[in-house]
Known about the structure:
- This protein is an alpha/beta fold and 256 residues long.
- It has a seven-stranded parallel beta sheet, sandwiched between helices.
- Helix 5 links the parallel strand 5 (136-141) and strand 6.
- The protein is built from eight helices and seven strands, in the order E-H-E-H-E-H-E-H-E-H-E-H-H-H-E.
- The chain has two domains: 8-186 and 223-248, Rossmann fold, CATH 3.40.50.720; 189-220, no CATH class.
- The chain is globular, with a radius of gyration of 18 Å.
- The longest helix is centred in the middle third of the chain and has 29 residues, at 105-133.
Amino acid sequence: MGQFEGKVALITGAARGIGYACAEKFAEGGADIALCDMDADAAAQAASTLAKDFGVRAIGVGCDVTDEKQVDALFQQVQEALGRLDILVNNAGVTRDNLLFKMSVNDWDTVMGVHLRGTFLCTRAAQKYMVEQRSGKIVNLSSTSALGNRGQANYSSAKAGLQAFTRTAAIELGPFNINVNAVAPGFVDTEMTRKTAERRGIDPEEYKLMRAKNIPLGRVGVPRDIANVIAFLCSEDAAFVSGQIIYVKGGPETLR
């Protein structure tokens, strides 16, 4: 029997990258899966793949997590299709990198909207079901950029805000046996980071090698590295872990 059998997990931004790796990890453990993504077709295809590969129930739903009505409809659909909600992973994210003097208000608002407003709306919707059943696991995706990163005033601020949101939600929801934690990845090889390299005019493979030089383990992360930690936080092994920010970045950065 898988460790997540009988559970239902909802992951936002789940059609690819870290989100899909999380969905796959939970499906391996026997959970039924709801995948949310702006790309409805990609979410549906990903759900079909999980159902075929792991024999679980899986649905893919198109949703803009910044839209309150769409979020409420998403959670209602999950409840109707899968019957319950045990795990929420707030993974949906975007970047609009630029130096402060070049950053537009729209770029600021877009990043804040997806990361902070989206996580708030999804968490608020999820807790209604989790409070009623008096159990649940919520994991938010922060980032090492929360510590500050050149060209990412919007992203860094949003990811730092998610850490405060995580601690506050853990305090408020703890009495209902709901664990809320955050994972802060370092550099992970995803479609998003490859596009970042391309915008800078750097070959993505060269970019990975360059970033790996400052990581003690000598390599960049892959989505499964992050999914493994998230799965632990959503397991019963982490039943007494809440309000924590777990950095997953291959060790303290070095300047070697």
